[in-house]
Write a structure and sequence with these properties.
Blueprint lengths: L1 E4 L9 H16 L3 E4 L11 H14 L6 E4 L2 E3 L11 H13 L3 E4 L3 H13 L15 H10 L4 E4 L7 E5 L3 E5 L8 E3 L7 H11 L4 E5 L6 H11 L5 E5 L2 E2 L8 H17 L3 H16 L11 H4 L10 H8 L6 H11 L8 H6 L4 H10 L13 H7 L10 E2 L2 H13 L3 H15 L1 H8 L11 H11 L7 H5 L1 H4 L11 H8 L5 H14 L5 H15 L4 H13 L7 H8 L1 H20 L1
Parallel strand pairs: 1-2, 10-11, 12-13
Antiparallel strand pairs: 3-4, 5-6, 6-9, 7-8
The protein binds one RNA strand of 78 nucleotides through helix 4, strand 8, strand 9, helix 6 and strand 13.
RNA sequence: GACCCCAUCGUCUAGUCAGGUCCAGGACAUCAGGUUUUCAUCCUGAAAACAGGGGUUCGAAUCCCCUUGGGGUCGCCA
């Protein structure tokens, strides 16, 4: 048995697509069959090589390996190629000719504008638009004349009769469709490319695909495919239509979700700004977008790893229309994300990869979102999927994507790692997606740090238990790599309480601890721990919190950091003393005002 | 709007096909306690659902019908 995933390479791989691919793969593997990747690049305008590569990268990252298809890092190959629809044009035309000859299809000369006008009229009259078969009534001489003139035209499939079409679907049972609900659909476009319907039917037949597993949005296409298969004398594969993945608000999961969040943040940010400031800000974003991605640094560097359809080069006007909600262009949303330092909801596989989710966790969660193994089992790996997956437990209803649950799964997986594993994965992640972080860690106060040394081990270890994603450390460790001057002390209740309350106050403790730390013979975690514990015992009723919190604030500016002993050890003595001093002088500043 | 699909805690689901063992089980989220040098973890506990209405049946979350709600499709996109 053979399954296939047949995406169009027109954008990043969406989690919905990833799940379809996953379940196709799992089904094939569970039944000892082959899984095929076929690129359905029949839309010349929207397809791109970059998108295709990105797609394969994402599938590969997820561990969904195709036995046949385009070759990529050990995947692909096979005897049924080519695996790009765009390279199979002659094949499609062969079948088009047959259909034409047998009168099962016909040429139609209406242009897109003409059809759109007819649709608009139908809409205005509250009618359902169906193609009126005008071209079918053309006589042979006219058709010949049009062809001689070189008029652009499409080929339409002629619906054979009025018999209801019954499609057997493995998850939904029998689905019956009245042909009156359909019309003579286009199978060959004016540019000579087939439509999806024709390509998919021919490719599935020629590639011996036995099981078609795809999203529910294709359910309504199935009768068309079945009709085509019958007309061409092809066998009918088994069909299974998966339910959809929805946003938390119930809408179909899409780029809209990102746009919504980015738009809200941008509006919030721009709210208090003057017209001039707004213009300047937008101009800056526009220029940022124009920069070649390879030159971006720092937080902008994330762009490099995020595949986007094209280099857009937005104008200020396009930006405006995004803000007004007229477009949901993800590239603009990401520009805002990077500029404002906000987090957009992940919807594409690459988003999750960049956010530091583990592929095996995403796979687990995605599988669970369309299938259930029963027996209250919900944590499982690839092998389990392959041994247990079957179509009979595929879920019929749509599911909302719950990022909180995914995060919880990711946390569990990270906590289950050995310290070594976590360190290695973290480092690989930083190097790939946060090179500036690694760079700074190895410079500045950490001049001793290169690749594996204790300092980094300590940082990883100190963050392991508090990480939900591989990215968490980067986010929460910024204070490590900041220059001392850049540390700003938060003006929050917690900070004030820890620093000012009590007698002695946090400031007093800091002042007392500073010389003690300066005199420490060895700057190690154990030595620091020993000294601070002793101090707390003698001067703070044994309450470590009394000294840990002021220290934490002094070195990080906030009340949150890894465990204090480790934090100080990683930071190094000079940095710690320097920052304590800064914090203390800040006291003088605030008390004088 | 037309056609089609779907319907158990806030969310994902088990249970539905073979009606009783289900005053409905698990997970995430939430809330309350506890552990902890902060955050995050971790531990304990609580609250939380068979969409509504009709049937069928001794008996229905499970079968049938209607209503309601949600989703999909209606492209020379896939």
């Amino acid at each position: 048995m053979r399954t296939r995933f047949a995406p169009s390479p027109s954008g990043p791989l969406h989690v919905g697509g990833a799940r379809t691919a996953l379940l196709c793969w799992a089904y094939a593997k569970a039944h000892g069959g082959s899984f095929i990747l076929r690129i359905e690049d029949t839309d010349q305008k929207r397809s791109s090589d970059a998108a295709c590569r990105a797609l394969m990268q994402d599938l590969h990252w997820l561990g969904i390996e195709w036995d046949e298809g385009p070759e990529y890092d050990g995947c692909g190959g096979g005897e049924h190629g080519p695996y790009f629809a765009s390279q199979r044009l002659d094949l499609y035309h062969r079948y088009i000719d047959i259909l034409l000859e047998q009168g099962k299809a016909y040429r139609a000369f209406e242009g897109p504008e003409q059809l759109e006008a007819a649709r608009a009229t139908a809409r205005a009259e509250k009618r359902v638009y169906r193609y009126d078969r005008a071209a079918l009534k053309l006589d042979g001489a006219t058709i010949q004349r049009y062809l001689d003139e070189g008029r652009p035209h499409v080929v339409r499939f002629k619906l054979p009769n009025d018999e209801p079409i019954v499609v057997r679907d493995e998850v939904r049972g029998e689905v019956t469709v009245d042909p009156k609900e359909m019309d003579d659909f286009v199978i060959l476009k004016a540019d000579g490319y087939p439509t999806y319907h024709l390509a998919v039917v021919i490719d599935d037949e020629l590639m011996d695909v036995t099981h078609v597993i795809r999203g529910q949005e294709h359910l309504y296409n199935t009768p068309k495919h079945v009709l085509l298969q019958d007309a061409l004398g092809f066998r009918r594969p088994v069909f299974a239509h998966l339910s959809l993945i929805l946003n938390p608000d119930g809408s179909k999961m899409s780029k809209r979700e990102k746009a919504k969040v980015a738009r809200r943040a941008a509006k919030e940010y721009l709210k208090a700004k003057s017209v001039e400031e707004r213009k300047a800000w937008i101009a800056e974003l526009v220029s940022l977008d124009k920069k070649p991605k390879s030159l971006l640094t720092g937080i902008e560097a994330k762009h490099k790893h995020r595949f986007q359809d094209v280099d857009h080069n937005f104008s200020a006007r396009e930006f405006q229309s995004f803000l007004e909600g007229d477009t949901d262009e993800p590239a603009i949303a990401h520009l805002i994300e990077d500029k404002l330092g906000i987090d957009l909801p992940e919807v594409d596989v690459q988003d999750f990869r960049l956010s530091g989710y583990l592929p095996e966790v995403l796979i687990n969660y995605l599988a669970l979102l369309g299938w259930s193994p029963g027996h209250d089992i919900e944590k499982f790996d690839r092998d389990f999927l392959v041994t247990h997956f079957d179509l009979d437990r595929v879920i019929k209803s749509n599911a909302k994507f719950d990022r909180a649950k995914l995060l919880a799964f990711n946390l569990d997986a990270i906590q289950a790692m050995s310290p070594n594993q976590f360190r290695e994965l973290s480092y690989a992640h930083y190097r790939e997606y946060h090179p500036e972080f690694v760079e700074k860690l190895s410079a500045d106060q950490f001049d001793m740090l290169a690749l594996s040394p204790e300092q980094f081990d300590m940082l990883a270890a100190a963050n392991h238990s508090r990480s939900k994603t591989l990215d968490d450390t980067v986010k929460s460790s910024q204070f490590f790599i900041m220059s001392h001057d850049a540390i700003e002390y938060e003006e929050t209740k917690g900070v004030r309480k820890a620093l000012c309350n009590g007698d002695p106050s946090g400031y007093d403790h800091l002042a007392a601890i500073k010389p003690m730390l300066a005199d420490l013979t060895a700057w190690t975690k154990d030595a620091i721990e020993h000294a601070l514990n002793n101090y707390a015992q003698e001067h703070a009723d044994g309450k470590l919190g009394k000294v840990a919190q002021p220290l934490r604030i002094a070195v990080s500016g906030t009340t949150v950091s890894p465990a204090i002993f480790e934090t100080l050890a990683i930071l190094g003595r000079d940095a710690v003393l320097n920052r304590i001093e800064r914090c203390l002088s800040n006291r003088k500043l605030s008390s004088s005002t």
